[in-house]
Amino acid sequence: MRTDIFARLDREPEPPKIEIPRMTRTRLALFGGTSAFYVAIVVAVLASTWLVIIDWKIMLFRPYQQWPDLHAFLDYFVVLGQRGPTAVMVAAWLGWRSWRQHTLRPLLVLGASLLLLNVTVGAVKIGLGRLGPHYATEIGSAELFAGGDIFPSGHTANAVVTWGILAYLATTPRARRYLSALSATVSLGVGLTTVYLGTHWLSDVLLGWAAGLLILLALPWCEPLIGRAERWILSLRDEWRLRRRLAPSLPVAAGGPRPGMFPQRPTEDGPAREPVATVGGTSGPNGRTTAQLAQTRPHTVRSERMPVTPSGSRRPPTSRPVTGG
After folding, report:
1. pLDDT for 27
2. pLDDT score at 318
């Protein structure tokens, strides 16, 4: 039995009992408050209020010119909010967890959250069509319905969802606290980095934080559907395995086993018997075949039943050699 730290990487013998998060009153209250904040940001941008003025002041301040030394590092740091690289990294970790715990739930939760992210954030992006700071045309304008796709910030929402999934799927309270702090730090840093680089307005980032948090808070409503999907996939896997076990063997033309490919093993009654040779078959003594031996040696013909004498007694029949002709 292994006692070192690498023993924790082994597959668990049985699926562990994992407590699935439920939609509690606290979560409902957070969901309602975040939804109100989301609507308030959208209304403030649509009405070109003080929030749009702050957006323009930060844009004209040009943080990337004020602190140019940070530009090289933040160009790499912002990748933590890109959907492709982060999804691959998190999917690799959750895939190992799925294998270790005999469950598909981690991967299915990730897939459901990314699907919700693409649908909700993408729909608002296309519907509002806001232009980014680098493509703004009129100072003080909200730049809405101009064919853009930056409101809300996809980098920020993706960072909240992708890294927040790790905290959502944590199995212990301690791990959940640490991962929540880590995901909050990464998503906060990614959002502010986009403002520093001038690729997003501040209001884009605020709405991205709210959009990502709403998806994480709504995941318990998706758990019943995720459970049904997992059972359906596992049933398909079991059916496929059963079909493989019951599948007939391939014919010889398709690469199946040929007669005589596997030698017969001797049984308990005696040694294995050689197969009867056909004409031109195996060789016998002195290099002659069994067919030649049968033609040259005389054989005796015996009656199957003993003849009956006139007195009623039976006597053994006489045998006479008959040469092959």
Report:
1. 94
2. 53
